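Isopropylmalate dehydrogenase-like domain-containing protein
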Amino acid sequence: RFMSTVTRSKLRIGLIPADGIGREVIPAAQTAIEALGSDIPKPEFTHLLAGFEYFTRAGEALPEETVEALRESDCALFGSVSSPSKKVTGYSSPIVALRKILDLYANIRPVLAVADVPGGKPRVDLVVHVTIIHKSNVLSVTDGLFRETVRAVPAGAAGRYDDITIAEQLVDSAVYRLFREPQIYDIMVAPNLYGDILSDAAAALVGSLGLVPSINAGDDFVMGEPVHGSAPDIAGQGIANPIASIRSAALMLRHLGYLKGADRIDSAVDEVVREGIFLTPDLGGSSKTQEVTDEIVKRI
Ligand code: GGG
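Predicted structure tokens:
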């Protein structure tokens, strides 16, 4: 389902790079969107603050101005955030907060191989079914509720999902089977924590976390976000893979109904990955973020 068929004269996009390599890859996604010209309404970008680094300067991780600006936007792109591993008084994760404030109840993370990148598995045609991932044999209250809620959806939808087969699996065995036979899965539906872990694991199957995009979607707003984190070990070196963010921009546009723009970005990315010449170090290459971005933009 596309979010809206509203005709817009401009597309207001909030940009929240946040921490680490988020600041290097979100500008790449902006450049890709700008390259689409008249295939989308004229983009109007608003640069917004959030993150742990901002917290250390300003004492808050998600300023009210950022939330207000997002409420005035059509969509947004979020980079990555480096939340500390121990409790810091006054800090909480801005991405988690944004998902709640903007009612972005689904974080959708497609993991798709486009070429035989180093370490990637050959492409597979997937069997359709939907698998609910949980651990309700141990977490019977929380995961049990999740399992029952997902199972109740098709029943309540009066035949709308008749062509969908629902399976379920405990999260530990799902990790095992994901690595042994990834082709058995089409859609994995999981609570936040398992989904986060499983999507990183699935990214290994297509060669790099630097390739995998996501959108945070609700009924009224969509926010693209690379699946990877802020990668402090490589931040500032100009070698982060921009593809996850560029693909997140495409997913966001697709969700809004701008299919041609989204297709142009995805095809350009696929071409660059398939050619295998301009690749960042995570894919075994030696190209810089900017070089990969330039090659993708050239093909858009
Ligand atoms: N773009 C995804 C991302 O930033 N991942 C890092 C992560 O999981 N951070 C947790 C947090 O800081 O809330």
